[in-house]
Amino acid sequence: MSQNKPLGHLGIIMDGNRRWAKNQGLPALEGHRRGYDKLKKAASWCIKKNIKILTVYAFSTENWNRSEKEVSYLMNLLRTGLLRDVKELGEKGVKVKFIGQISRLDKDLQRLIKDVEAQTRANKKLLFQVAISYGGRPELIFAVQKIVRQKIRPEKITEKVIAAHLWTAGVADPDLIVRTSGEQRLSNFLTWQSAYSELMFIEKHWPDFDESDLNKIVVEYNKRQRRFGV
C-alpha cells in the first residue's frame, strides 16, 4: 500500500459551543467565547504538527437565522478578537484569510477583515482560513455566476475552472475534515472541496477539544489509505 502524504490541510467544523455551555450551567454566549479561545490554541497546535492549512467553520449562512442577540455577540467576538490577536497571529507566522459572503458583514468588520488579511499576507507557517457567512452551495452559486459573467464557453468549463472561481481558489482541498460534538454531517461546509476528504466525527464539544485530541486525529489520519478511486 502507498504511504499517505502528511496531513497538510485540516478542516474543522467547530460544533457544540452552546451544548457545552448548557452542560456547564453557563449562558450560551459564554460557550461561544470559550470556543473562540480554543480556536486560537488550535492554530498553534497545527503549527506544532506541521499542518500547513487550517480551515474552520466559524459562521454559516444558516447561522444568520439565529437570534439577533446571538448573531450580534458572535460578530462582536470576531471584531474584538481580530483587533486583539492580529499581532500575536503575525508573530506566530499565521496568514489569515476569510472565505464566505463577506459583503453581508457590517462595513467596519469588512474593513477590519481586509486589514488583518493585509497585515498577515506574507506569513508562511500556517494558512488560517476562517469560513464566515459561508455555505458550500452559496459558494458554488458564486462560482457559477462568475463563470457566466466571464462568458466562458460551456465546453471550456472544467473542474479546474470551477475550482479557480471558488472562495478557496488556489488553496489545496482539505485532506481531513473533523466535526466535534457528535453530529455526523458536513452541514454545507466545503461542499466542492471535500469530495475526497477523510472524515472524522468526535463526541467532544468544541470548547473541550485539546491538543491530545489533535494528536489522536493525526495518528488516525496516518493509518488511513487514501485511494482516490484507485
The major beta sheet can be summarized as:
6 strands, parallel
Any idea of the CATH topology?
Answer: Undecaprenyl pyrophosphate synthetase
Query: From N to C, what is the helix and strand string?
Result: EHHEHEHEHHEEH
Strand content: 15-25%
**Shape from CA axes?**
globular
- Physical arrangement of strands within the biggest beta sheet: 3-4-2-1-5-6
Number of helices: 7
Which class best fits the helix and strand makeup?
alpha/beta
**Poorly predicted tracts of residues:** none
Jot down its keywords.
16% strand, 230 residues, alpha/beta, single chain, globular
Structural notes for this entry:
With 230 residues, this protein is an alpha/beta fold. It has a single domain (9-222), classed as Undecaprenyl pyrophosphate synthetase, CATH 3.40.1180.10. Helices cover 43% and strands 16% of the residues. The protein has helices spanning 17-23, 28-48, 68-91, 107-120, 136-149, 159-164, 211-223; strands at 9-13, 53-60, 94-99, 126-134, 176-179, 198-201. It has a six-stranded parallel beta sheet, with helices on both faces. The radius of gyration is 18 Å and the shape is globular. The chain starts with 8 loop residues before the first strand and ends in a 7-residue tail after the last helix.
